[in-house]
Amino acid sequence: MKQSVNFSTVDEYISLFPPEIRSGLELLRKTIRKAAPEAKEVISYNMPAYKLKSVLVYFAATKDHYGFYPTSSPVIAFKEELKSYDTSKGTIRFPFDKPIPVKLVRDIVKFRMMEILDEGVKRKA
């Protein structure tokens, strides 16, 4: 997909992908929203993102995988669970030809929520 469009909503972002990719993006969206219902859905860096004081996670589709961007700490904390996926500092790549690990995505989002909420408590102290 060309990156010449500046998205204003997650619906707009998802709508530009073919149906087979769109279903995976919708699954990621639904999983994140269920795990963090109070998080605000936004577009940041031209990708879907979820904020709770600060950004929880981002997701996107590339030419050959779904990118899930939870920042670096969950990639370290969930190292064992992620060993069958391609990862880098703050990125997890889910191949299009394999099911999205819904429970793992949910656990990572909840981990990020606790991180952000703990950070807020620490700042107040």
Question: Can you describe what's shown?
Answer:
The structure is a single chain. With 125 residues, the chain is of the alpha+beta class. It has a single domain, classed as Alpha-Beta Complex (Aspartate Aminotransferase, domain 1). The protein is 42% helix and 26% strand. It contains 4 helices and 6 strands. The chain has a 6-stranded antiparallel β-sheet with strand order 1-2-3-4-6-5. Strand 5 and strand 6 form a beta hairpin. The radius of gyration is 14 Å and the shape is globular.
Record the SSE blueprint.
Layout: H1 10-15, H2 19-35, E1 40-44, E2 47-52, E3 54-61, E4 65-69, H3 72-77, E5 86-88, E6 91-95, H4 102-124
Antiparallel strand pairs: 1-2, 2-3, 3-4, 4-6, 5-6
What's the gist of this structure?
The protein has 4 helices and 6 strands, in the order ααββββαββα. With about 120 residues, the protein is an alpha+beta fold. A 6-stranded antiparallel beta sheet has the order 1-2-3-4-6-5.
Q: Catalogue the unreliable spans.
A: none
SSE ordering:
HHEEEEHEEH
The gross shape turns out to be globular
Structural class call reads alpha+beta
Distance between the termini: 46 Å
Task: Write the CATH architecture name.
Answer: Alpha-Beta Complex
The proportion of residues forming helix, as a percent range, comes to 40-55%
Overall tally of domains: 1
Please state how the strands of the largest beta sheet are arranged side by side.
Answer: 1-2-3-4-6-5
Count of DSSP-assigned helices:
4
Could you give a short account of the major beta sheet? 6 strands, antiparallel
Query: Count of DSSP E strands?
Result: 6
Q: What's the rounded overall pLDDT mean?
A: 92
Provide the CATH top-level class: Alpha Beta
From the alpha-carbon coordinates, what is the Rg to the nearest angstrom? 14 Å
CATH fold descriptor: Aspartate Aminotransferase, domain 1
Strand content: 25-35%
